[in-house]
Design goal:
2 domains, GMP Synthetase, Chain A, domain 3, alpha/beta, binds guanosine-5'-triphosphate, 278 residues, 8 helices, binds magnesium ion, Rossmann fold, 3-stranded mixed β-sheet
Length: 278
């Protein structure tokens, strides 16, 4: 029997959703950072086998909306949860669920598995769950995969929803823009990271080299200074770290140029939020 279906990966910001998707897929589909609200889009991570295809939907962490971008992110979560075959609801084992979360889970109308995440960390809280996992050590990954497969629809014929060579629905351009954002998130602090967006403005692929120009959009002039860093050091680090990733997925030499642009309050500008694909 062939198994195929959609599985939404849902939970609070920082619960470990993107880390789990990457661990199950075995490729870097979604960026990861220690800052909450890293993921903004629904990103598909596709796990392919000879007799199955699991389509994981990574989602933004559930939080209260402060601006248009937040609202767009929460709409992404709602759309991900409707029409899937299974929800994986992730709870950071060191934090446990809050009341709001318990109620959210109770009202989900889709079969749900509750996962305790980050079980490699000390200070685990007491709460009920179906599986305990660690994306870092790989704990229970095979067991979880089997549990997911047991909940997916069965077919008597091969039914790959996506071509089995694909591990995500996102383009190389998107993955590189996100990688730039991840490097920026990891290098920057305080309020700067949340106001950042990345736009690829040129992607020029030749036989053995790819030229890429990208804008890092931020909200304030002083943020621009922080992104550039002393003598351009921070921007340079973002660039060289991203280039290594881009060369790896493209299999070609990459020349990457980064620019920083200020666009005040873009997170409340409908056209901008839309243009950026959120
Ligand atoms: N120790 C440990 N850390 C983990 C594990 N899984 C994720 N983390 C860390 O938790 C932080 C958040 O991980 P993400 O995967 O980005 O979390 P997320 O739920 O996708 O977060 P948002 O996209 O912001 O909603 C990162 O610093 C990860 O390295 C784990 O199994 N063990
Ligand atoms: Mg994420």
């Amino acid at each position: 029997m062939f198994k195929a279906g959609y599985v939404a990966v849902v939970g609070k910001p920082n619960a470990g959703k993107s880390s789990l998707v990457n661990a199950l897929v075995g490729e870097k589909v979604a960026i990861i950072s220690s800052k909450p609200q890293t993921t903004r889009d629904n990103i598909l991570g596709i796990v392919n086998g000879d007799d199955y295809q699991i389509i994981l939907v990574d989602t933004p962490g559930i939080h209260h909306s402060k601006n248009l971008l937040d609202k767009a992110m929460m709409k992404n979560v709602r759309s991900a949860v409707s029409g899937v075959d299974l929800v994986l609801y992730l709870i950071d084992g060191t934090k446990g669920p809050d009341e709001e979360e318990k109620e959210y889970i109770e009202h989900l109308s889709v079969p749900t598995l509750i996962l305790r995440t980050k079980t490699d960390l000390k200070g685990q809280k007491d709460f009920e769950f179906d599986y305990e996992i660690s994306s870092l050590t790989g704990k229970n990954m095979q067991e979880l995969k089997q549990a997911i497969l047991s909940k997916l629809p069965e077919y008597e014929y091969e039914n790959y929803i996506y071509d089995k060579d694909y591990y995500t629905d996102k383009s190389v351009k998107f993955l590189i823009a996100e990688e730039i954002r991840e490097k920026a998130l990891n290098l920057l602090h305080q309020e700067v990271p949340h106001g950042i967006a990345v736009e690829i403005i040129r992607f020029d692929e030749k036989e053995d080299i790819v030229g890429i120009d990208a804008d890092i959009v931020c909200e304030q002039e002083r943020h621009k200074g922080m992104i550039i860093g002393k003598g351009g050091a921070t921007l340079k680090t973002i660039g060289s770290q991203t280039r290594a990733f881009a060369e790896d997925i493209l299999g070609k030499k990459v020349v990457l140029k980064l620019f920083v642009k200020v666009e005040s309050d873009w997170r409340n500008k409908p056209q901008k939020v839309k243009n950026l694909g959120y």
